[in-house]
Structure prediction request, 362 residues.
Amino acid sequence: MAKVLMPLANGFEEIEALAVVDVLRRAKIEVVLAGLQPGAVESARKVVIVPDTTLDAVTADSFAMIILPGGQPGTDNLNADRRVHALLKEFASKDKMIGAICAAPIVLASAGLLSGRRVTCYPDYCDRLDGVIFEDKPVVCDGKIITSQGPGTAIAFGIEIAMRLAGRHTAEAVAAAMLISDTPAVPAPPQTEAAPGCWDQHLFNSIIQALVGALEQKDSYAQGQARRVAEYSLSIGAKLKMPNEELRDLYLGAMLHDVGKYNTAEDVLNKPDSLNLREETLTREHTLKGTLFVVGIENLSHIGPTILHHHERWDGTGYPGVSRENRSRCTPASSVWPTLLTPCFPTALIGRDLTGKRQLSR
Prediction:
């Protein structure tokens, strides 16, 4: 049976905490309430709860997930506690699930867990989530992180968590017993005659991440590069106040910016010495090949310029040509910094004339 940890601070939101606890316990999921300090905890509306334990008495190894309820001043109290941040980082490092509702996603952001992620929160707090892809939905899942908007979405949030921890059948049974006939947490997937019920709402993003992972296995230099470029690009896009649709496309373009390297020989990609003219030409072709990879694919064709122009420099040099589109110019700017930080980067070349040498950013 899965086990979930829910830290409670004075000023927590009652519905967001207790509705989620109720749903999960109906699904036979053990929920442990942990107070920041010994003794009772008082909610935002003076409801007193006696937690099961204290935060000092728990470890991440004992749980499959940690969930933060919102409410004020509860969220700020959680955010001010270093133990909460340490637990969140430990859960993330061990690839465990993390949930937050209402204002609580700002705690995840403060812990550095949301950059480049699709998230939601209470509307008044979305401007405190820099570098994220904000979605105005009741519940948003991105990998192991689940976020929700507020008291009115708490049950849907709980059902979504139950589905992830106990399975769809159990979650649907709980929803039916609670007379929940329509909840975004258990969506009706699109149907086809060939394969009814086989589609998942996050399948598209998962496939992109799988493609990038396969490429990174081929190119040892590029380990983690796509996600780092995506995170830096989203941070720049947020500062430029790009709309959510452009941030989404920026994320997709950054994740797929090197997809054209699938057609580049591994001995060229991983060559430790300077590239000869033929090898340099083959390497430079990956921007065009990557663009051709997405052209004609529904929902991806429009990110072609981001892939095509990601080796152009701000002064107009680089290859293959100049782009003045903000989204296209974010990616090359974002790729330089993580490249310089890469341990395998040939730092002896920095500041030297690179004519005929390996490029700073391949």
The chain has a mean pLDDT of 81.
